[in-house]
Amino acid sequence: MDANIVILPGDGVGPEVVGAACQVLEAVAHTGGHHFHYDEHLIGGCSIDRHGTALTDDALQACQAADAVLLGAVGGPQWDNPTAAVRPEQGLLALRKGLGVFANLRPVKLYPSLLDASPLRPERLAGVDMLVLRELTGGLYFGQPRGRSQDGEHVRVIDTLEYHDYEIERIVEMAFQLARQRRNKVTSVDKANVLDSSRLWRQVTVEVHRRYSDVALEHMLVDTAAMRLVASPANFDVIVTENMFGDILTDEAAVLPGSMGLLPSASLGSGGPGLYEPIHGSAPDIAGKGIANPVGTVLSAALLLRHSLRLEKEAACIETAVEQVIASGRWTADLGGKLSTAEMTAAILAALN
Ligand code: IPM
Ligand code: MG
User: Which of 74, 127, 274, 351 could form a disulfide with 234 if both were Cys (CB 3.0 to 4.6 A apart)?
Assistant: First the structure.
């Protein structure tokens, strides 16, 4: 197969982990006789420095025309001025919106050999295997009006949590479909005791559930969900929730396996290219040191092969290789190991063959 993949390394450790994932993609292409064409663009702080904007129209158009997009991370302290008009994160949000990728899949699974790396006791972790489905193009991240204004002698700010029924319907529908391929349970997380947006979320979820009555549905308030994620994480199968709740809960869920560096994500729309990125950030404290864990991005590349290129066998091979390497105790520093990014990548490549 021939495929066009846009590569957006971004800032911080982004280029290091994306470089690792590209090596893995190339190895898989070589074995399977595929031809992947890579087109690299800037996003985030590096794009601001070069072009004055976190994502150029050129870069967005290249992404829209691609088969899939692989992204590293954006942001860093040098672009963190809270009053700056341009911010690295704007590039990521514009990309998600511009690709229409409303569904962010964040699978959380455990590696038995890493149980000690988790802050939770092993008995709490037994059976943890969940998929968080985060709505990605609505809610507080995009709602209007927003911004600061002067209100007499005070400063006033507004963010708007906005959803249309159809935005809720399509993500919840996807949650039920994904649950059917798993353990058949959906937990819809909201704050329906306080927010109107959550009351609509719950209402639409109940309506969609009529078409998926074979799937178990529970509603959970977001504060309860935050508590249950650490108290009884194995009870979750598919969690579906709005954008900001999903952002927060997935960082929390990411500590269960022992390191955020392990977790991949896929962002999908209805048709069009998917966007694949690790869930960790740009980690400026370790950027350039060659010690970042490449696994989250390598597994994101596996999701790219599965969801955008329909190369299931190749995706599964990468996941098995990663499992083997981790099981054999070869770990990067975030997991308490000694391997550099390059050594971890080499170990994964060796396990592929
Ligand atoms: C994530 C990140 C982003 C988000 C930031 C970098 C804008 O935290 O992908 O979870 O909040 O969506
Ligand atoms: Mg986040």
Answer: 127
